[in-house]
């Protein structure tokens, strides 16, 4: 049996943390390894506990979730971050995704959907609700040239298509019979050529411009 997915919950409301923990403790393949009450503590606990997935609130006193995401990305920690937000905070989701979040769910999420979201981002997928994906795509289209995809090599297009499919570097390497180091180089080149910040933007670019597999 595979090791359970280790989850850290970061939220300034104890009731929310307790509710999320209650949701997850009945899942055989998910283990809550800790909690944090703000972004700074979340970064410290992430370093300490090495979770696979961090459930991160956006609005918190002190260091908020977006700044915490930036700190985690600076540390190059392998944890995937799933934003847990209220519907009224939807406008804060896009900055969070651009800061490196793998996706988001709402705080009133169904327990099974929450568990499924954790499994999905842990597997390397990007989790976007249609309304947010649409806004991101519109922004990407207005901020980027239509012809930039033409600067990619055929191999880079293949890698980009697999990124859009939610594949990890390891999975891409297996699919294309390449080393992970070579895949990382291709991903870096793709982001540089397309002037994109991260894999989320790359995946959205691929979908918008018909570069998916």
Question: Can you give me a brief rundown of this structure?
Answer:
With 213 residues, the protein is an alpha/beta fold. The chain has helices at 14-24, 39-49, 65-75, 93-98, 111-122, 130-143, 154-164, 169-176, 180-194, 199-208; strands at 5-10, 30-36, 53-56, 80-85, 103-106. Helix 4 (93-98) links the parallel strand 4 and strand 5.
How does this model look, in words?
The protein is 51% helix and 13% strand. The chain contains 10 helices and 5 strands; from the N terminus they run βαβαβαβαβαααααα. The longest helix is centred in the C-terminal third of the chain and has 15 residues, at 180-194.
Note the topology.
Layout: E1 5-10, H1 14-24, E2 30-36, H2 39-49, E3 53-56, H3 65-75, E4 80-85, H4 93-98, E5 103-106, H5 111-122, H6 130-143, H7 154-164, H8 169-176, H9 180-194, H10 199-208
Parallel strand pairs: 1-2, 1-3, 3-4, 4-5
Helix pairs in contact: 2-3, 6-10, 7-9, 7-10, 8-9
Binned, the helix content reads 40-55%
Measured distance between first and last alpha carbons: 32 Å
- Average pLDDT works out at 84
Inertia-based shape: globular
Which properties best describe this structure?
alpha/beta; 5-stranded parallel β-sheet; globular
